[in-house]
From TrEMBL:
Ranges of residues in domain HTH tetR-type: 2-62
Region (Disordered): 152-171
Feature: DNA-binding region: 25-44
Keyword Membrane (UniProt): no
Official protein name in the record: TetR/AcrR family transcriptional regulator
Keyword annotations: DNA-binding, Transcription, Transcription regulation
UniProt KW Cytoplasm keyword: no
InterPro entries per UniProt: Homeodomain-like_sf, HTH-type_TetR-like_transc_reg, HTH_TetR, Repressor_TetR_C, Tet_transcr_reg_TetR-rel_C_sf
Gene3D superfamilies, A to Z: Homeodomain-like, Tetracycline Repressor, domain 2
Source organism: Streptomyces spinosisporus
Amino acid sequence: MSGRREEILDAALDIADEHGLEAVSMRALADRVGVTPMALYRHVKDKSALLDGMIGRLLTALLPARTPEDQTWEERLGALGHACREVTRRHPWAAHLLFSRPAVTPDAVRAVDIVYTALIDAGVPESQVPRLERLVSTFVIGFAASEASGRFSPGTLDPRSRRGQLPDEELPGHRRLAPYLDLPVDLTAEFEADLEDIRALIRAAAGRP
């Protein structure tokens, strides 16, 4: 990637951080880097290519320069999951972009390949690897997106107050789980537990105990 293209993509990331993803446009980007909109097309051909490039720039932070030879497949998946969560914490708008764009840039394809090779090394039958990669990616990005958007936060009402908006007989599941719903949630611990559940599913798909 040329230095000028990196500069342009970094400027686009800055605009999204400051004003949200919807503020990223070719005109706003041209103003930020001090060129005409037409001059941008030498480096990004259109808005779609710009968004793909932004994904690639974000994923650069996810990918190790090279995978340590002594890392297990479990460690590789865990490292990628944690890196994705960290990116969305720094750039809350990024989860939507990762969810809505296909993996077409070199860095995006490399990230998918890390998951592919981890699943292969785990012993998953090759015919099942693409399906499990989609499951792993959907979980990691979905968790990160929910956390970044505030979906996991209690909002303006605590769990008990939210349940109080409906009669108990309409919420048998909530009534049964009330002691657990009222507890504070440690999202980091929950993310770790979810990753281990994913690893257990992969071991099962590989025919391991």
